[in-house]
Amino acid sequence: MAELPGTWSVPVVRADFTDDAVWNQIRMRIAEPTEEGFGADVDFVEDRAWDGLDEASIVASYPPSYPHEYRHLRFPR
């Protein structure tokens, strides 16, 4: 199984690769700013190693410390 990448944001994992058009629509809707101009702070994860996994399997693959000690990238000091 793939490993989640280090990220500044919340990962959105693609687990179905049967329809690129639907995935692109989902990405656009998530990335679309609200009326107030706020946008979702996410990173899209597209790795075929996740293909076909159900939600429980994906969640189970997160590190046990997620989200409190997840290896999000840190700002350089």
Task: Indicate the topology.
Elements: E1 10-13, H1 20-31, E2 42-45, H2 55-61
Parallel strand pairs: 1-2
Explain what this protein looks like in three dimensions:
- The protein has 77 residues and is α+β, with helices and mostly antiparallel strands.
- The protein is built from 2 helices and 2 strands, in the order βαβα.
- It has helices at 20-31, 55-61, and strands at residues 10-13, 42-45.
- The protein has a two-stranded parallel sheet.
- Strand 1 (10-13), helix 1 (20-31) and strand 2 (42-45) form a beta-alpha-beta unit.
- The longest helix has 12 residues, at 20-31.
Keywords, please?
77 residues, alpha+beta, two-stranded parallel ribbon, 2 helices, 25% helix, 10% strand
